[in-house]
Design a protein that fits this description.
D-Maltodextrin-Binding Protein, domain 2; four-stranded mixed sheet; 7 helices; 9 strands; alpha/beta; 2 domains; three-stranded parallel sheet
C-alpha cells in the first residue's frame, strides 16, 4: 500500500465515513432521489464503506462534474471517485491518479434527431455537435472528425446537462457522450 493510500484509509477510519465523488446525475449510475442516492457508482461506494467500515451506509456523496472531478480528488476533499471517467495514460502520468480497476466498459456515441436520416457517424460532416468540455469525449470528437476529413461546429459546455438542454432546444444537430449517458 502506498503512503497516500494508507493516509486515505486512516482518514476514512478516523472520520468513520467514506467521502465518495459521484456524477451530478446519470440515471443508472448515480442520481439523487427523494429517498437518497442510487445507482451503480453509488453501490460501489456503499461496497467500499462496507469493506472498510463494516457499514454500507457510512458514505457521504459529493456530486461532481467532469471539469472539477479530478481537482476535487487531488485536493483530498473526497476519498474516492466513483463516476464515469476514462482511464487514460495521461491521467495516470500527469495527474498521478491510480485507476485500480475498470468497473464499466463504455464507448462514445452520437444522438441525433430521426429527421437527419443518418445511419453512420460518417454522415455527420458539417454538423453542429454539442459536447461537454474538458473530457476525453471532446478530444475523441475532434480526432474522429479530423481522421475522417470532416468538418464540425463544436459547441462546448461545462456541464453535460447544459449540452443536453442545448441539443433539446435545437442549438446543435448532434449530442455526443458516453453511450451509457446517451441512454440515460
Amino acid at each position: 500500500m502506498t503512503p497516500t493510500a494508507a493516509q486515505t484509509l486512516a482518514a476514512i477510519k478516523e472520520r468513520d465515513a467514506l467521502v465518495c465523488g459521484v456524477s451530478e446525475g446519470i440515471l443508472g449510475f448515480s442520481i439523487e432521489t427523494a429517498t437518497g442516492w442510487t445507482g451503480f457508482d453509488v453501490d460501489f461506494c456503499r461496497a467500499l464503506a462496507a469493506a472498510v467500515l463494516g457499514d454500507p451506509g457510512k458514505v457521504h456523496y459529493v456530486p461532481l462534474n467532469a471539469e472539477n472531478r479530478f481537482v476535487v480528488l487531488k485536493s483530498g476533499n473526497i476519498d474516492v471517485l466513483s463516476r464515469n471517467s476514462s482511464w487514460t495514460m495521461s491521467r495516470e502520468v500527469e495527474l498521478k491518479l491510480v485507476f485500480p480497476a475498470a468497473t464499466y466498459f463504455d464507448g462514445q456515441g452520437f444522438i441525433l434527431r430521426k429527421g437527419r436520416n443518418a445511419t453512420s457517424a460518417l454522415e455527420l460532416d458539417g454538423a453542429k455537435v454539442c459536447v461537454e468540455g474538458n473530457t476525453t469525449t471532446a478530444l475523441n470528437l475532434d480526432d474522429y472528425f479530423r481522421a475522417n476529413d470532416m468538418r464540425l461546429e463544436r459547441i462546448t459546455f461545462s456541464e453535460a446537462s447544459e449540452a443536453v438542454k442545448a441539443y433539446d432546444a435545437g442549438r446543435c444537430d448532434v449530442f455526443t457522450s458516453d453511450v451509457s449517458q446517451l441512454y440515460a
